[in-house]
């Protein structure tokens, strides 16, 4: 494999890993925010434990979203400085807004939500998770603006040997964006839904005596979320065919990926509308359905990755369609030694951490919702350590 | 307009050094000041509420680079390629250590991740010194130049002292005395010096006026909100880390 192939592989692997965790973050954030809202409104301890249980899964997943995202942010300057040199005046702007506004707020308020439990007033605490949810979607929006620009370079004109920004509005109304962004939202909601459904089904099936009420309600919440998410994903998926350029999916990887993703989407649509929704009342009680529900969980993840493969491979050899080839976008001077080392380092570390992260999430699910670590009440018998500056329970 | 973005390009890394500096310092000091598991839990609990709000300053700095100084972005990151890769891996592993360390109950598990946090914090600090030196030489000297290593060691000590001062304020029995406000002002000095010296080249790498104008419209109105959010973090946790058990 030459330098170009290695650099493409590195981006594909790191971006793919990143999106695995992003797609679940997008799905679970609104779920946790709604549960948190119900708890604050009703004071119901069951709603509190639901918030803490699903919230814990959400944040452990989010951890890998963050670390893979860090690698993404710096990767452009590392291996693709040809891109930032040629199109940085246009392509850099949405990325900058994402990091400086959306992610900055998301990270700050997430810290407040996780560590401010029992510290912030309840409504202020609730506001934090809603801000995190909103900014997560804002992040997704700005990244889609940047990617959509690569697919269709609207709002820019060639000046000399670089692209200049001529119409910021065109960036935001890009035909490659207007349907793909809602499609990503639908995909996120779908993924969140089937994780909630699958994990709840596991608990009801394996430990039918523990927290029946909590997981029954969670399972139904998952189904309601699927009823919204899957049709949105499928509808905006098909809508994109109107705006996709001729010959985009000619390649084997792109067309196969697209085909399998569509099959999965259709299967989930039928399962949701013809099976899950009509049976929503009895699903928690019909144990024979639970292994089937668990088996559905990986499907949205697979569809998401296949979708991205087809979207990205479908524009090869263009980095920016009709403007810049992938080969020209490479950092000049990138040697095989450099790219091999970074590919090996990023792939090994991120994959290892991803596997550990999923194992930890599985452990969280297996432990159940009796006493989630997130938002655990202060330990009553902790002796204070010195000044009240560090309050250890009291 | 360019001056505002230049200001952000200077302020954000400086803020990162002042804030994440004490996170890295405490991380490095885990094997030094944290003799028992309980001690290390307290040390991490002291920084935990701030880590997410602190590290994002560097993420934002990278955003300024890619958005407002796109011609520099490739130059700087590609010029520091091996260092950037090592620093990213160290950052990733440090974060993973914080998120993972309390997810299982065993001693071995927690000790492992504490060791990862300490090693990663140390590595990141050393690399920052080497990176800053490399920038001042315009990427002409080799990245492992002795002066770079010296700057790395200096920064490491500075972060360690800063972390110790912060810890002393929050959990006095670890390290009484120390003035974290003072060290917060001193610690960014190297990065400020490097950026000030590089100011002419920085301006040369700025994006077009049209781009800067669009960026300003999209970002600057949010700056009060960004500042307010950060201030809220400090107000919320001014009396300490919050009730244990900490999530990190």
UniProtKB/TrEMBL annotation, chain B:
Coiled coil: none annotated. It is found in: Cell membrane. The chain crosses the membrane at residues 6-30, 42-72, 78-100, 112-135, 147-167, 179-199, 211-233. GO terms for biological process: aerobic electron transport chain. It is a multi-pass membrane protein. It comes from the Bacteria. GO terms for cellular component: cytochrome complex; plasma membrane. Keywords: Cell membrane, Membrane, Transmembrane, Transmembrane helix. GO terms for molecular function: electron transfer activity; oxidoreductase activity, acting on diphenols and related substances as donors, oxygen as acceptor. Belongs to the cytochrome ubiquinol oxidase subunit 2 family. This is Cytochrome bd ubiquinol oxidase subunit II. The lineage of its organism: Bacteria, Bacillati, Actinomycetota, Actinomycetes, Streptosporangiales.
């Amino acid at each position: 494999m030459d330098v170009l192939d290695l650099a493409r592989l590195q981006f594909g692997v790191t971006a793919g890993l990143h999106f695995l965790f992003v797609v679940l973050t997008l799905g679970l954030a609104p779920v946790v925010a709604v549960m948190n809202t119900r708890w604050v409104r009703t004071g119901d301890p069951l709603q509190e434990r639901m918030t803490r249980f699903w919230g814990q899964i959400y944040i452990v997943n989010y951890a890998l979203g963050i670390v893979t995202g860090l690698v993404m942010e710096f990767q452009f300057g590392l291996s693709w400085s040809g891109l930032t040199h040629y199109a940085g005046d246009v392509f850099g702007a949405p990325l900058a807004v994402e990091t400086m506004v959306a992610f900055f707020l998301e990270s700050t308020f997430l810290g407040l939500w996780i560590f401010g439990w029992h510290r912030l007033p309840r409504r202020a605490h609730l506001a934090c998770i809603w801000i995190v949810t909103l900014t997560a979607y804002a992040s997704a929006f700005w990244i889609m603006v940047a990617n959509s620009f690569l697919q269709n370079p609207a709002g820019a004109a060639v000046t000399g040997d670089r692209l200049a920004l001529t119409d910021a509005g065109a960036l935001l109304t890009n035909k490659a964006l207007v349907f793909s962004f809602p499609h990503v939202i639908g995909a996120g909601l779908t993924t969140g839904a089937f994780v909630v459904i699958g994990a709840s089904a596991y608990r009801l099936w394996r430990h039918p005596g523990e927290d029946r009420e909590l997981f029954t309600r969670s399972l139904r919440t998952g189904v309601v979320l699927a009823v919204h998410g899957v049709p949105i994903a499928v509808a905006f998926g098909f809508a994109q065919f109107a705006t996709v350029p001729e010959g985009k999916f000619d390649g084997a990887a792109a067309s196969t990926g697209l085909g399998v993703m569509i099959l999965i989407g259709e299967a989930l649509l039928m399962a949701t509308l013809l099976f899950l929704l009509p049976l929503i009342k009895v699903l928690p009680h019909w144990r024979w359905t639970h292994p089937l529900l668990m088996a559905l969980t990986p499907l949205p993840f697979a569809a998401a990755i296949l979708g991205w493969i087809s979207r990205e491979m479908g524009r090869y050899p263009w980095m920016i369609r009709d403007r810049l080839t992938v080969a020209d976008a490479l950092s000049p001077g990138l040697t095989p030694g450099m790219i091999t080392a970074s590919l090996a380092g990023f792939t090994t570390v991120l994959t290892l951490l991803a596997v550990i992260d999923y194992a930890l999430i599985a452990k969280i699910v297996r432990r159940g919702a009796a006493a989630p670590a997130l938002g655990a009440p202060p330990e009553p018998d902790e002796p204070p350590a010195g000044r009240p500056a560090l309050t250890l329970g009291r | 307009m360019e001056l505002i973005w230049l200001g952000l390009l200077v302020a954000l890394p400086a803020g990162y050094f002042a804030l994440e500096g004490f996170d890295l310092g405490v991380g490095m000091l885990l094997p030094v000041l944290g003799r028992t598991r309980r001690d290390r839990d307290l040390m991490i609990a002291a920084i935990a509420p701030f880590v997410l709000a602190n590290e994002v300053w560097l993420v934002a700095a990278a955003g300024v680079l890619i958005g407002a100084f796109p011609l520099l972005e490739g130059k700087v990151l590609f010029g520091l390629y091996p260092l950037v890769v090592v620093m990213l891996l160290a950052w990733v592993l440090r974060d993973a250590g914080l998120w993972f360390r309390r997810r299982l109950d065993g001693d071995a598990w927690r000790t492992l991740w504490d060791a990862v946090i300490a090693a990663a914090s140390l590595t990141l600090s050393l690399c920052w010194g080497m990176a800053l030196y490399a920038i001042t030489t315009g990427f002409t000297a080799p990245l492992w130049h002795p002066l770079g290593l010296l700057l790395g060691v200096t920064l490491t000590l500075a972060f360690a002292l800063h972390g110790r001062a912060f810890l002393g304020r929050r959990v006095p029995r670890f390290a009484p005395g120390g003035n974290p406000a003072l060290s917060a002002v001193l610690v960014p000095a190297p990065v400020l010096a490097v950026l000030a010296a590089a100011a002419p080249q920085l301006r040369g790498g700025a994006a077009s006026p049209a781009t800067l104008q669009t960026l300003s419209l999209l970002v600057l109105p949010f700056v009060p909100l960004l500042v307010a959010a950060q201030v809220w973090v400090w107000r919320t946790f001014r009396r300490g880390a919050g009730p244990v058990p900490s999530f990190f």
